Amino acid sequence: MEGEYYGVAGIVNSERVARIGTGQSTVSARSFSPDTSQQSFHPIPSDVSYEIIDEDQLRNVKRSLQIRLNKRVDQDVLRSIAMELVKSVPTKYERTFIGYYLPHMEPEQNPYWATTHFNPDLEVKILGFTKEEAITVFNNNEISSGEIVGSWIYEVPNASSRIDIFKEKGKLFERRLYGDNSSTTSQLVELNSSLGRRFEKIEPNDFGDHYIVGELGELQIRDNDGLIATAIILENSQGEAEDKAGSEIKPDIDNKAKEDSATSKDTSKSQSRELSREDIARIKNYLRTAKRLIDAGAKEAAIKYLEAVIDQAPESKYASEAKNLLMQIDKE
């Protein structure tokens, strides 16, 4: 359906995802439609892996797959993965739709990074930053003066950008840097919010577009209807752009724990507090992230997320799951 992208949680409206601060970008998705019947496909490199995180079939008419990659790859590798997935089952479907997420992306919060759709011919599209664009954008350090509030990566179809929020001469600004090396700068204001540090443009729009810096340092992109997507913390590593499972995350849980220590007793008395839908979505996201960090061997980073789950939902089933994971870590 035009203007919409499908994920585990349902439809993500592309206008709402891409609207906030991306109107001046001219970046478009990179795509090509090869004739697969006449082409040979290269082996998938040994350092590239993927897993199927969701799958759905409709008789022999349609098969839909959601894939998590371990890293950014080029179009040739995507093409080879797509062919491997199609050939991995005996049923020949009329159409196969495959969407790809990177390690840091959550299906409930992010559109696909890339797609390889057989509709019926194979078309490969990279919707977020390519490997080359990521290296350029992630390592751009043009903002050298002033106080840096934070830098994040926001990947959406045709409008991916690096978001820098910084303070200069007493004023707050947002810089958006795109894959074609163009950029925009807007002045921001900081407002009070119970969710975290809230920033919005000095001239707000009718949609109520704004940012919230969450407890773990992530940048929540929101409007009047709630959460749109989440931008991840930027991490530079020795001149190369990498999506690191653990080191890119710098949670501020320790400081928050100190701030909340004075009210911990009151909190324990009200452990039966009903969790909101946003609370549950955030906590489930913490658990998923912790599991991936454990699998990647980043146990210290995983512990931060598990402790946050226990602190924020102490009497819930999520806290029980977090405690079990902590016990497993202790045994290893």
Give structural notes.
With 332 residues, the chain is an alpha+beta fold. It has three domains: 30-127, no CATH class; 133-237, Lipocalin (Beta Barrel); 251-331, no CATH class. 27% of the residues lie in helices and 31% in strands. It has eight helices and 18 strands. It has helices at 14-19, 75-87, 131-138, 253-260, 264-269, 277-295, 299-312, 317-331; strands spanning 4-7, 10-13, 30-32, 50-58, 62-69, 95-101, 114-118, 122-126, 147-154, 161-168, 171-178, 183-191, 197-201, 210-213, 219-223, 226-233, 236-237, 240-241. The protein has an eight-stranded antiparallel barrel. It has a six-stranded mixed β-sheet with strand order 3-8-7-6-5-4, with helices on one face. The chain has a two-stranded antiparallel ribbon with strand order 1-2. Strand 1 (4-7) and strand 2 (10-13) form a beta hairpin. The radius of gyration is 21 Å and the shape is globular. The model is unreliable at 1-14, 21-38 and 236-272 (pLDDT under 50).
